[in-house]
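CATEGORY: protein folding

GOAL: derive structure tokens
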Amino acid sequence: MKSVMSAPPWLEPLLTTPFFSICHTHGDSARSERNMYCLDCHSDAFCFYCRSSHHNDHQVIQIRRSSYHDVVRVAEIEDALDISGVQTYVINSARVMFLNERPQPKAGKGGAHICEICGRSLLDPFRFCSLGCKLVGVKRNGDASFNLEAKKEAMGIERREGISSRRRKGIPHRAPFGS
């Protein structure tokens, strides 16, 4: 039987949290849109001002919108979660990933890459279109993981093996001296 690292306790609440409403406490302020999420508290979305007063020393990510769907910057989440296998996109010069699947007709026969869970067409050879689909895949198949430590260990082993087994491609030749 495979040992599966379940998802961190904050992932499911993150994926079901409604974002982008106005903060009840700071509604009159300019940055009162609730687009922050605390990975330590994993309770509810909050605004910029709530972060300063209640989550100052916590690990907080900012949720953004792209085409009416919630995204998170890869740079903000990759240190907290193994995001391997999830399609990323560059939007406004930042690499992002979608939190949940987006409605779309299922991929046709011409689609080379599709999400294993929802069938969405993918641009690159990834397994999942979003963090939500990866969560379903982890629960269903157990062959994917969110365990960041296991990923770091595997990468360290691959790097060490790659260094020790690397060989030259041929005999080095010097450029001929000019006449």
